[in-house]
Amino acid sequence: RLYKQSDVFSQMLVDIFSCAPPHLTIMDAIVAMEGEGPSGGSPKRVGVILASQDSVAVDAVASKIVRFNPMNIFTTQNAHERGLGTGEIEKIEISGEDISGVEVRNFKHSAVAIGFIKRKIPSFLHGFIQGQLTLTPKIILNKCALCMECVDICPKGAAKLDGDLVWIDRSLCIHCMCCHEVCRFQAIKLRQRPLGRIFREVSEFFRKAKSLFR
Q1: What are the extents of the domains in the chain?
Q2: Is this model's pTM higher than 0.85 or not?
Q3: 145-154: string of b/e by CB count within 10 Å (b at 16+)?
């Protein structure tokens, strides 16, 4: 509840990681999940197993395989900058299959905040941009089965039942996405403010344009 913004939450995770980094990290990426996971995601075959004494490098390579820029992911970027591992693909020595041979080109990304924006804009605009990118859950009424799992799991009581309708009280929502994670009916959609959606569309456009020249 204390770390509502994704970049600050990621720093907290890296703080925990820095206390006791593992000696060996093994990632099972034979089957991954794409889309709006975990409850609304879909299995996607990747077909690789990653292992390294550098946990940050494992994350970086895994994200590159599913077509993320590793340095646009807050945890990888923060850990790399703090010297806890290597997040830049160019500096990682890879044994076995080359990334280009296992890259999943049609991997569907989730509706997450865009890390590249923080690195491309002046620091005094970070707070404003982060606010625009913050995801807010919205109930899709025609999909809602009134199972009440979102109401039960919400730590702040923001998910409410009013008669036969469930709704999200935005004044109480802390954007933890627990409701979205437990909804097995895909009745909760994560939405951004209009400006945030524009940022996402621009980011996706440049990502696709860049891939054409690879």
Answers
A1: 6-110, 118-212
A2: no
A3: eeeebbeeeb
